[in-house]
Amino acid sequence: MGYSNILLDYIGSTRVYPEAVGIMSVPQSQADKTRISALFDRLAAGYDHEALRFFAFCADQLVQRLAVSTGQKILDVATGTGAAALTAAQLAGPDGRVIGIDLSEAMLDRAAEKARALGLRNIDLHLMDAESLEFRAGYFDGVMCGFGLFFVSDMARALGEWHRVLRPGGTVVFSAFAPGAFEPLAALFFDRLEREGLMPEGVSRPPVWHRLADLGRCRGLLAGAGFEAVKVDLEPIGYHLAGADQWWDVLWNSGFRALLEGMDLERRSQFRAAHLADIAQTASAQGIRLEVPTLLAHGRKPLAKPAG
User: Fold this and answer.
1) Could you tell me if 298 and 259 are in contact, meaning their C-beta atoms sit under 8 angstroms apart?
2) CA end-to-end span of the chain, whole Å?
């Protein structure tokens, strides 16, 4: 779905933004996946913005927990612009292989540009659905996924696929936003949308990432998929934005953008001014604090039992 199709549709007096329904609530159909991939195509150019540096911080944590070593084969699910995959490829070395998959072609194109700039030749990038992997069983030494699992309609099925493609003894690690992520800034954003009648029908509050904002839920999904030695860590990621304008950079270059694109330019400009005035009231001498506490969940595929 192209940008020109982001039009307001009316059911009575309620605005429906299809892109917002696809990105801020659980995807239920192939059409929802198409909308998600289209949105992330548009986000690709700004996805490495410094205001979103929590992505890079978390990518480093994923790779550290996977303990990537020379010669390993690693799968990065929902690779985006390749933040984790590129680091893993450097650690795996020329005898290793990293494969990054994503639903967004533009994200993969950006990752490929970065790989070429680094001179990496041991990384492959493919359009692929996390729920239906096109790899043989037991191929990978490690599977990682940064902030992608909660977008999957059937998370248990996806983890089952990741378990299938791992070798016995292989490791899986994924990240999810913990309770309190983006707060209180996100609450101010949603409150303003609701007060001005701009919250699209079908969009959940809390947003879709709250599906995994629970240690027990993460543990249960991993254990249910057959992983052992399951552990979930809380990483207190956070930093100061230079000002309220950088919070808008977070909104516009991440999934929040789906809630803004349905507004015409004049309406969006008015909303921006009002919302950033709210955000400015949270400022300290250091700037605007962005809290992104993150859950890092990992487990191991059991070793094969000896025959007999």
Assistant:
1) no
2) 55
**Look-up: residue for tokens 């240690």?**
215
- Chain-centre distance for alpha carbon 134: 21
Token pair recorded at residue 59: 């990518």
Q: Which domains does the chain have, with CATH numbers?
A: 11-300 (3.40.50.150)
Predicted confidence (pLDDT) per residue in 169-199, tens digit: 999 999 999 999 999 999 999 999 999 999 8
Neighbours of 114 (CB within 10 A): 17
Bond prior to 207 in cis (omega within 30° of 0): no
Cα–Cα dist 148/175, whole Å:
8
| Residue 25 CB partners (closer than 8 Å, separation 6+) | 202, 203, 204, 207, 208
Beta bridge mates, 232: 297
pTM of the predicted model as reported, rounded to 2 decimal places? 0.89
Burial of 173 (0-12, 13-18, 19+ CB in 10 A): buried
Residue 261's Cβ-side half-sphere holds a number of Cα atoms within 13 Å equal to 25
Q: What is the DSSP letter of 206?
A: S
Q: How many helices (H) and strands (E) does the chain have?
A: 10, 9
